[in-house]
C-alpha cells in the first residue's frame, strides 16, 4: 500500500493558504461536514468515499433480467475510479465490485446486456474503459470481445460535416463537451492496446473540433454544446453554440484531455495541441473559480447570480484534471493553490459524515442536457435537481484524491 502522509499534509505543501468564510447560495451548507483537519490524507478520503458508495449501492448496479440497472456511463466512471484506486490502495473489494458490476452485463461471448448500438450514443461507450481495464487484469476474453463491440460503434458513429462525432442519434448534428470524455479515453486506449495508430488522429480531431466550435474568447470558457445545423431551440442562430457555460460539461472536457494523454504516443504531432487546449481550458476555469471558496459554480461565469450554486461534480472534475495536469507536467506548479483550495473545501463543506461509518458527497447536480425541452438557459441549469452521492461526483472525487496524494508526494520531495 502506498505510504500515507501525516495529518498536516496540507501544511507540508509549498503553497499553504487560509480559507475565508463562505456561503453556498441556493443550497445551504450541510451539517456534520468534515472537520477542518480530520487527519486523513487524500488517498484515505478516496477510500472512505469509495467504501461508502459501494456499501450504499450493494449489487444495485449489476445487471439482472427485468432489473433497473443499466449499461451506463456513470457506472462506468465509478467502477473505473475503483480500479484506479485499487492500484494505489490495493483493496480487493474495489476490484471485486468493479468486476461484479461491469461483468454482470457481459455474456460469455462478449455481448453486452442492455447495450443498444443503434442508439449511436457516445454515453454507451464510456464503460468501455472499465472493460479494457478488466481485460488487462483478468485476461478474460469476453471483456476483449465486449470492447471490440464498443469500438465498432465508433466506426459507424454519425459525424458532423467536419468529422465530429454526433453525441447521440437522437441529437443529430450536435457535439457536446460531455461526449469527449464518453468516447475519447476509451478510443485512445483501444488504439494503443490493439495497434490502431491512425485512430489517435481521430481522437485528436474530436478534441480539436469541440474546442473550435464551443470556445468563447471573451470569457476563456467553453459552451456546453454546438449544433452544426443551428436549428435547435437552444442553439445560437449564428454560431450554433448553446448559451451558457455549464461547469460539469467543461469538467468532462478537461478530464477527457488529461486522460487521453495517458495513451497518446509521446511523439504524436497532436499531443502539444491537446496540451495547449487543456491549458486554455484550465486558465479559463481558474479565472472563474470562486475566490471565497475555491469551488466552481453550476453556471461557471454567473457567480453569485440568484439561484446559482457551488456545485460538487464540476469542482471535483476540475480539481482532478488540474492536479493530474500538474503531476504530468501539462500545467505549471502555480496552479497548485487553486487545486489545493478546491479540494480542501470539497472535504470541509461538501463531504458529510453520516455517523454510520459512511460519508456522503453533497451538492451534486443530478443531470443536465440540451434539447427535448431543455433550453440551455441559466434558469434551466440552476433548477435541475440537486442530489447527494451522484456517481458523476463520486468518481471524480476518488480520482482527485489519488492525484492529490501524488501531488503531496511531489511537493514534499521538492521541499526537502
Describe the largest sheet. Answer: 2 strands, antiparallel
Mean pLDDT: 91
Poorly predicted regions are 1-33
Q: In the CATH classification, which architecture applies?
A: Alpha/alpha barrel
Give the helix proportion (percent range): 40-55%
Write the layout of secondary structure elements.
Blueprint: H1 42-57, H2 73-89, H3 92-103, H4 128-138, H5 141-156, E1 174-176, H6 177-193, H7 198-214, E2 215-216, E3 221-222, E4 225-227, H8 247-260, H9 271-287, H10 312-327, H11 336-350, E5 351-353, E6 359-361, E7 364-365, H12 378-383, E8 386-387, H13 391-415
Structure, described:
The protein is mostly helical. The protein has a single domain (about 10-415), classed as Glycosyltransferase, CATH 1.50.10.10. The protein is built from 13 helices and eight strands. It has helices spanning about 40-55, 75-90, 90-105, 130-140, 140-155, 175-195, 200-215, 245-260, 270-285, 310-325, 335-350, 380-385, 390-415; strands at about 175, 215, 220, 225, 350-355, 360, 365, 385. The two termini are about 25 Å apart.
Keywords:
416 residues; mainly alpha; Glycosyltransferase; two-stranded antiparallel sheet; two-stranded antiparallel ribbon; 48% helix; globular
Short note summarizing the structure:
By secondary structure, this protein is mainly α.
Amino acid at each position: 500500500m502506498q505510504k500515507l502522509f501525516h495529518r498536516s499534509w496540507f501544511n507540508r505543501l509549498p503553497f499553504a493558504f487560509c480559507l475565508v468564510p463562505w456561503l453556498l447560495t441556493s443550497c445551504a451548507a450541510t451539517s456534520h461536514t468534515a472537520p477542518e483537519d480530520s487527519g486523513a490524507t487524500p488517498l484515505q478520503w478516496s477510500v472512505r468515499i469509495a467504501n461508502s458508495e459501494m456499501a450504499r449501492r450493494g449489487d444495485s448496479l449489476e445487471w439482472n433480467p427485468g432489473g433497473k440497472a443499466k449499461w451506463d456511463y456513470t457506472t462506468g466512471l465509478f467502477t473505473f475510479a475503483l480500479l484506479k484506486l485499487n492500484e494505489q490502495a490495493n483493496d480487493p473489494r474495489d476490484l471485486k465490485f468493479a468486476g461484479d458490476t461491469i461483468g454482470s452485463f457481459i455474456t460469455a461471448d462478449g455481448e453486452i446486456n442492455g447495450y443498444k448500438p443503434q442508439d449511436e450514443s457516445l454515453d454507451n461507450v464510456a464503460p468501455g474503459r472499465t472493460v479494457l481495464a478488466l481485460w488487462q487484469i483478468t485476461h478474460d476474453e469476453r471483456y476483449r470481445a465486449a470492447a471490440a463491440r464498443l469500438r465498432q460503434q465508433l466506426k459507424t458513429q454519425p459525424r458532423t460535416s467536419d468529422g465530429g462525432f454526433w453525441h447521440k442519434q437522437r441529437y443529430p448534428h450536435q457535439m457536446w463537451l460531455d461526449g469527449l470524455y464518453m468516447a475519447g479515453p476509451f478510443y485512445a486506449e483501444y488504439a494503443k492496446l490493439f495497434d490502431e495508430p491512425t485512430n489517435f488522429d481521430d481522437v485528436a480531431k474530436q478534441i480539436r473540433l469541440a474546442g473550435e466550435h464551443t470556445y468563447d474568447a471573451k470569457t476563456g470558457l467553453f459552451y456546453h454544446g454546438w449544433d452544426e445545423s443551428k436549428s435547435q431551440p437552444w442553439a445560437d442562430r449564428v454560431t450554433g453554440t448553446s448559451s451558457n457555460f455549464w461547469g460539469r460539461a467543461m469538467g468532462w472536457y478537461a478530464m477527457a484531455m488529461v486522460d487521453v494523454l495517458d495513451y497518446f504516443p509521446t511523439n504524436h504531432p497532436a499531443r502539444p495541441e491537446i496540451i495547449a487546449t487543456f491549458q486554455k481550458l484550465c486558465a479559463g476555469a481558474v479565472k472563474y473559480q470562486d475566490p471565497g471558496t475555491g469551488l466552481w459554480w453550476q453556471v461557471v461565469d454567473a457567480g453569485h447570480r440568484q439561484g446559482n450554486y457551488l456545485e460538487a461534480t464540476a469542482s471535483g472534475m476540475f480539481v482532478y484534471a488540474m492536479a493530474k495536469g500538474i503531476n504530468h507536467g501539462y500545467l505549471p506548479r502555480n496552479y497548485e493553490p487553486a487545486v489545493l483550495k478546491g479540494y480542501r473545501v470539497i472535504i470541509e463543506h461538501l463531504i458529510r459524515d453520516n455517523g454510520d461509518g459512511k460519508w456522503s458527497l453533497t451538492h451534486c447536480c443530478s443531470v443536465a442536457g440540451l434539447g427535448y425541452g431543455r433550453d440551455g438557459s441559466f434558469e434551466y441549469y440552476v433548477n435541475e435537481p440537486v442530489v447527494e452521492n451522484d456517481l458523476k461526483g463520486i468518481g471524480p472525487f476518488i480520482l482527485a484524491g489519488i492525484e492529490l496524494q501524488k501531488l503531496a508526494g511531489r511537493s514534499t520531495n521538492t521541499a526537502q
